[in-house]
Structures are given as C-alpha cells and as structure tokens.
C-alpha cells in the first residue's frame, strides 16, 4: 500500500512574507523619518493567515488575534516615535504584549506603500476613476522617479466637482466628517491629483502639475485657506479644488489591493496563505454636532 501523502502547498514564514512585502512595496522607498518594517515576530515562524488594517490600534489587534491571524500587516507604524518602555500599562506596550503572547507578528508598510506602484495613492486615484497605470508621481522618489508620493492623472471623462465628490463618498469608507469640499460644485474637473493621508505639504507640486482637483486628507486651515485664495483670487483659475477625506478613509482602499497582491506573490513563490481585511472603522472621531436651525421671527 502506498504511503505517499497528497502534496500540500507550504505556508510561508514571517521572513518569507517580509521579503514578499519588500518586493511589492520596497522598504528602501520609505521616508527617512519613517519606521516601516517588522515590529514583532520570529523570522522562522509559520504564517497561515494575514490580517490587514490601516491602524495597529487595540481593536484591530483584538480582531486579528480573535481571527487566528499569524501576522497583522498595517499601513501605519506602531512605534513611529522613540519609546523607552513596552510595559503593558501603556496602549503601545499592551498591543505588543497581545501580539507576542498570541504569536501574531506585526509588519508595517507605511511611506514605502505610499510611494510604491499599486500602493496607497494608486488605489486612491483608481477610486477617483483614473487608471493608475497612466498616473505619475506628484513627488518622484530620488532614486526611482517612476514611483514616489502622490499621483496625478486624467479622468477618462470630465465630471463636475460634485460628481467626483459623490463618487468618492460612495467608494471610500466614511468617518463622521464625511468629505469636505472647496470649489464650485458645478465646475468640470479632469486632471486629478491625490495623496493618501496628510497631503497639504505638497500643494506646490499639485499646482505645478496643473491639477483641477486635489484629493487628500487632514487639510489644515491655513494651507487650505491659502490654496483657496490662490485659486479664486486675482489671477486664479479656480484650481485646484479640494476634496478632504479622513486620513483613514483615504488609505483604506489600498487594503484589498495589498491583500490580493501579497497573496498572489506568495502563491507565485510556492506558498499558501489566507488573507483578511479588517472591517473596523479606525478613524478616531465618534460623532459630530451641528447647531439646530434657529427659528426666524
């Protein structure tokens, strides 16, 4: 009687997953201040299931552990600033303890995933309706100008600013803020610039590319006010209009891409892994209050 067992595709190790992530979203592309990379996990530990999320917050860690994940892959780093203790008395230390004690590695892909092709900004501009293959970086990387921060491209068909905002509202996860929009709602827009996450530091690049509208998040009062004054003041041409999403919502469209791309690459390398995208809303705001209409005498 034959004792041969059916062949099974092996699972990757933590190190295998990190190498695949580096191939997709090269860690060399991260900004100098960033902290992308492996945070917890033994390189040789087996990974059967990977959980994807934007933020490594307590709820996401619990979700990953409860799902039996061997790795949590997040966009935002857990340890971006220096710390002197990982005691479980603090929320960062507690997250590390929960991950380690449940044998769940943590891998963070932050600005490297912002810059890389099929990264955060490619996913956001695709959500706007621009083919990411035809989009260019707003800020090309110093060593590889084919990639970089932000994207700019052209819609297949011009739409009104209102239509673009409504399209985004239907396609990206919403926080309590919704979408804030500056510009004439009936003005037609064609050239779209995007930057997943906080993008008000690259207004100059947006203007240099002649974008009709800039889609980003975390727009602060003064940069947004100055951008609007330039657009509508003497000599202005109404551009760029602004669409301000939540930070989390502008980056979440990348997660399904990341899960699919990482699973595919690992399969090409002979490994099998399950992937799952978090359904938690990790935008920090819980509700908003507006004044009730005042009765008119």
TrEMBL record:
GO molecular function: hydrolase activity; metal ion binding
GO cellular component: cytoplasm
Binding residues annotated for a divalent metal cation, in chain numbering: 75-76, 114, 247, 251
UniProt KW keywords: Hydrolase, Metal-binding
InterPro entries found in the cross-reference section: DUF34/NIF3 (IPR002678), DUF34/NIF3_sf (IPR036069)
UniProt cross-references to Pfam families, sorted A to Z: DUF34_NIF3
Family the entry assigns: Belongs to the GTP cyclohydrolase I type 2/NIF3 family.
Subunit structure: Homohexamer.
PANTHER family with a match to the protein in the record: GTP CYCLOHYDROLASE 1 TYPE 2 HOMOLOG, NGG1 INTERACTING FACTOR 3
Protein name, per record: GTP cyclohydrolase 1 type 2 homolog
